[in-house]
Amino acid sequence: MSDLTIAKVETRLLDVPLFRPHGFATYTATAQPILLVSVTLDGGVTGYGEGVVPGGPWWGGESAETMKVIIDGHLAPIMEGRQVNELAGIMADFERSVANMRFAKAACDVAMHDAWARALDIPVRDLLGGRVRDEIDVTWALGVLPLDEAVAEIEERIERYGHKSFKLKMGSGDPAVDTARIAQLAQNLGGKVGLRIDVNARWDRLTALRYLPKLAEAGVELFEQPTPADDLATLREITTRIGVPVMADESVCSPADALAVVKAQAADVIAIKTTKLGGLQESKKTVAIAEAAGLACHGATSLEGPFGTAASIHFACATKGISFGSELFGPMLLKESYTTTDLEYGDGVVKLPEGPGLGLEPDWDKINHFTRN
Ligand code: MUC
Ligand code: MG
């Protein structure tokens, strides 16, 4: 077995254009900043992770730039010189030295899983408990778009990739106008596909209680984080009063947050982003808590590129509790990717990439092209 000593940790900022702008509640992304983290072992093997947030610091406060500072200055020195199969010990040492910063820790956690699995010549899924599934449903997300553009994109995505459900971003404009747009879209689609909404925590209680029932009437099948993360009482009120399943996203950024949501009976589904939760091990703990309480978990995305998305696919393919499909579409939103092979999307699913580690190899020409000077 090759030497598992971590020889060096490197980071580089990439700016990867999207094929179209992606409008969130308070930010519109036209490119995705991605911090590519490389962990190289003495044995010569290199593993990759991605420091990614959905577009920028509006979502949770971290950004690719803050992650570079934290990893270069504080997390890399903890990793270098250690054995990569001390991963749990390294992650514990992260906690002693750096509070929070879970997106940054997740990038390191994934890169170490990739390096370790490659050194053992096994897929990352085997380090996470082994095979549960080989593919997972993929919901496609539309940013805030005018009705006709939304219908056209949905029809095109159904045709090309067979998506069976779609997530629609809300929260950026007048709630009445936003709600009418989504209700009309639901009517135009006539139940052909599932429609979900994500307000990214930007509606207050009264707005949510006023407009979510209209979206329920229109047939929306899931409300993702309609109201602020810390207000679990309102999330519970929405969950119990309106009857449409509620998914907690911003409310759950750690296993402890998941326990709080369970105790408050505040949601039916938890969005499992391996990024916001601080990596694959922390995500396993979070799913275990949700599963024990009968909550479903969804393989969620922070719009990662290929390496980060592959890590979440390996996670979902090794975790029975990811029982509510996924939205692991990140690489499809990029105008171009930066690995020598692409993840395989089709018939509404994405497949687990074959091969050791994450199953993808870097395309250094593309990476150099996207690297920020
Ligand atoms: C989020 O909050 O869900 C996931 C898909 C999308 O369009 O936004 C991200 C972040
Ligand atoms: Mg969300």
Automatic annotation (TrEMBL):
Residues 147-245 form the Mandelate racemase/muconate lactonizing enzyme C-terminal domain. The keyword Manganese applies. One of its GO terms (biological process) is menaquinone biosynthetic process. Keywords: Aromatic hydrocarbons catabolism, Isomerase, Manganese, Menaquinone biosynthesis, Metal-binding. SUPFAM superfamilies: Enolase C-terminal domain-like, Enolase N-terminal domain-like. GO terms for molecular function: chloromuconate cycloisomerase activity; manganese ion binding; muconate cycloisomerase activity; racemase and epimerase activity. Pfam families: MR_MLE_C, MR_MLE_N. InterPro entries: Chloromuconate_cycloisomerase (IPR013370), Enolase-like_C_sf (IPR036849), Enolase-like_N (IPR029017), Enolase_C-like (IPR029065), Mandelate_racemase_C (IPR013342), Mandelate_racemase_N_dom (IPR013341). Pathway: Aromatic compound metabolism. It comes from the Bacteria. NCBIfam families: mucon_cyclo. Belongs to the mandelate racemase/muconate lactonizing enzyme family. This is Chloromuconate cycloisomerase. It comes from Corynebacterium halotolerans YIM 70093 = DSM 44683.
